[in-house]
Design a protein that fits this description.
The chain has one domain (about 5-129). It is built from three helices and nine strands. It has helices at about 10-25, 85-90, 105-110, and strands at about 5-10, 25-30, 35, 40-45, 50-55, 70, 95-100, 115-120, 125-129. α1 packs antiparallel against α3. The protein is globular, with a radius of gyration of 14 Å.
Length: about 130
């Protein structure tokens, strides 16, 4: 049984993130200088829960400035004053960043307007895209 399900609705930023991920070949691993060829997004929990780019941006702008930060429904600190407590309940108390891999068909569906659901379990994730 899942602890919670995070929903990421299609929008211009999510479609852009998916397309840029498809176009990129090198992705950072969290908390290191190491890289991988596995295409994916970072799933981040700090001030809310969101996806952001795992590829290195071609410019010196932040992921937010590039439009690569996409909050899960209900987990945006700008629209939910209880986001800290809600995030803590959903995925735990510690902040984190995990590389969530996507295959090419998933990224193509997202780039074309598909949503993403992330089912959170005690010790794993299930991503549907």
């Amino acid at each position: 049984m899942s602890k919670t399900t995070l929903t990421f609705r299609s929008n211009k930023s999510l479609r852009k993130l998916a397309q840029e991920t498809l176009n990129s070949d090198e992705f950072r691993l969290p908390y290191s200088e190491e890289t991988t060829n596995d295409k994916g997004f970072f799933l981040v929990k700090d001030e809310g829960i969101y996806f952001m780019n795992a590829f290195k941006s071609k410019n010196k702008k932040t992921p937010s400035e590039n439009g690569y930060v996409i909050y899960a429904v209900g987990y945006n600190p700008k629209t939910n004053e209880d986001v800290w407590e809600k995030s803590r309940w959903a995925v735990g108390g510690d902040d984190f960043g995990n590389l969530i891999p996507f295959d090419i068909p998933q990224l193509e569906r997202i780039a074309e307007g598909g949503n993403i659901s992330v089912k959170v379990f005690e010790d794993s994730w299930e991503v549907i895209a």
